[in-house]
Design brief:
single chain, 360 residues, Rossmann fold, SH3 type barrels, 17 strands, 29% strand
Length: 360
Amino acid sequence: MRNRKQKVVVAMSGGVDSAVAAALLVEQGYDVAGRMLNLWKERDGNAEDRGCAPDAAQDAHRVAQVLGIPLCVVDCVDEFKQQVVDAFIAEYARGRTPNPCLTCNRLIKFGFLWDVTQSCDADFLATGHYARIEKHAGRYQLLRGVDRTKDQSYVLYMLGQTQLRHTLFPLGTITKVQVRELATQWNLPVAQKAESQEICFVHDDYRRFLQAYAPDRLRPGLILDRAGRELGQHQGLPFYTIGQRHGLGLAWSEPLYVLEIDAARNALIVGPRAQLGRTELRVQDVSYIAGSPPEAPLPVTVKIRYKAADVEALLYPEAGATARVVFSAPLRDITPGQGAVFYQGEAVVGGGIIIKEDQI
């Protein structure tokens, strides 16, 4: 009797990355099945519009037909709305600047879809992320993608050993240019499809989205300096982020930057550039790729945003899934709500969500 082909469920979005990921797995001899999540998505400002865009679903089905694989659309509208969209709004209400991709990967792609994959008796879940998985000394490592301009290891720091053991990232060892070339070579109908937008469920601008879905969270308030002096009025805290200079509407003797978002007082704290840098940050909900924290302070490099450059630091694990990160020099733009991801060379150590000290 022949050995059974290993079964892979591929998360398909209707884009070129997931299409080529599926095609590569078919070429490698896997038993491939596509799954497309039907997510809540605002479209043209219509609050009642639910589900994935028709053109994306059509593209995914066309790709599946070319590849000769089955594709099912799985309803995830309510889960996505509650766990990702509502959380996005709630974080802004707390004075944070969230990255919804981190929540989506943790709870939807490697939560909800992971459970779907298990129910299909599949051996692996595959996605079109640009990241790599390697096994060393019996442990799985999450590594940066070869294409540094597309590397997505930052948004995958929450994966653990079990997930890495049963996950495939077919695009991790190739570049975006090569992905386009392969899509053209295989006559995939999405070969030249444009990149998806940054926040998938927002039609255009997140500020307009918050005005439409959370108008009660956009209350004008005071702009203060560190000494508590009133300098002006802001239009609503979610419109601002740490390090922002433009759009404050202040005439001052020197440029002023957003230093802090004080949700408790509905106040925006500003100051000169010299007051902006910090030498340490705290994170909560910390996850480590190895499954446990290092036993001693660990030299790492840290990314405080998806597109940020790595910065050298020392990682101090703490009790209760929190940690402290100390930098060798002041770092500006440390923003509560964003992810801080720790690296050693190519390997992801782990990461967590940046918080204010009073939010621990």
